[in-house]
């Protein structure tokens, strides 16, 4: 087993390989992270600016001491693990995704605008809160295709298109067209997992599936179930899935 230590960015969302992640960074611990990433890999360098993104199981994405929060009486918290308790590892899901921050723009006030892309799944082994921001020892996970991934991907794509049409109809909106969906099984599995309107535990289950085929089988069941529910609902909450094609840049 080979591990690597990376900066850790916990979020209330699941990042999948190939998906774009825009970030608005204003907490000091994550500002420090971005400053270090840019220092290690400046714009004229070919080195990636890698950090690990994990979904929060139990904790707060933003520490209660940060400005702008509605509760002015919140007890201040400071430090890399603020909001995540005495053992941060227990606050996070065990599988996350490496992100590569291709674009990092520092604003005049010291905050950052970041555009990152998910690259590789990782398993968390330990979390270190001794520095200005969290770091983690992570193991990169290979993507095993599993059995019949190609045929399953075709079925999932058909079910996903039907799901999109039902979702657009339930919201009385036009389905965006003209974008070709991918046909590589692992890419299909990650795109559908990211684009479908699912809760965080379900998305996390899809991220940590043992292989592509298992993820696609799970998605096929979910899409058929969600489509059946949508068919019987008069309206749905506002979501952005039908506004445009999902980017896999």
UniProtKB/TrEMBL annotation:
<dbReference type="InterPro" id="IPR046336">
    <property type="entry name" value="Lon_prtase_N_sf"/>
</dbReference>
<dbReference type="InterPro" id="IPR015947">
    <property type="entry name" value="PUA-like_sf"/>
</dbReference>
<feature type="domain" description="Lon N-terminal">
    <location>
        <begin position="6"/>
        <end position="227"/>
    </location>
</feature>
<dbReference type="Pfam" id="PF02190">
    <property type="entry name" value="LON_substr_bdg"/>
</dbReference>
<protein>
    <submittedName>
        <fullName>LON peptidase substrate-binding domain-containing protein</fullName>
    </submittedName>
</protein>
<dbReference type="InterPro" id="IPR003111">
    <property type="entry name" value="Lon_prtase_N"/>
</dbReference>
């Amino acid at each position: 087993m080979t591990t690597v230590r990376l900066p850790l960015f916990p979020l209330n969302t699941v990042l999948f390989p190939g998906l774009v992640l825009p970030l608005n960074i204003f907490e000091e611990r994550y500002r420090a992270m971005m400053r270090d990433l840019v220092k290690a890999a400046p714009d004229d360098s070919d080195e990636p600016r890698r950090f690990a993104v994990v979904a929060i199981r139990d904790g707060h994405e933003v520490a209660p001491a940060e400005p702008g929060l509605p509760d002015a009486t919140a007890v201040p918290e400071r430090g890399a693990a603020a909001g995540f308790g005495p053992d941060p590892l227990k606050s996070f899901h065990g599988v996350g995704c490496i992100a590569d921050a291709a674009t990092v723009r520092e604003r005049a006030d010291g905050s950052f605008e970041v555009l990152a892309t998910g690259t590789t799944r990782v398993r968390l082994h330990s979390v270190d809160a001794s520095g200005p921001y969290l770091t983690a020892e992570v193991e990169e996970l290979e993507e095993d295709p599993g059995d019949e991934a190609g045929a399953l991907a075709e079925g999932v794509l058909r079910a996903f298109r039907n799901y999109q049409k039902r979702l657009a109809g339930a919201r009385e909106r036009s389905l965006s067209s003209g974008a070709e969906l991918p046909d590589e099984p692992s890419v299909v599995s990650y795109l559908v997992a990211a684009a479908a309107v699912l809760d965080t535990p379900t998305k996390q289950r899809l991220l940590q599936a043992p292989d592509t085929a298992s993820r696609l089988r799970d998605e096929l069941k979910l899409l058929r179930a969600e489509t059946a529910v949508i068919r019987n609902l008069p309206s749905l909450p506002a979501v952005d899935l039908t506004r445009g094609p999902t980017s896999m840049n």
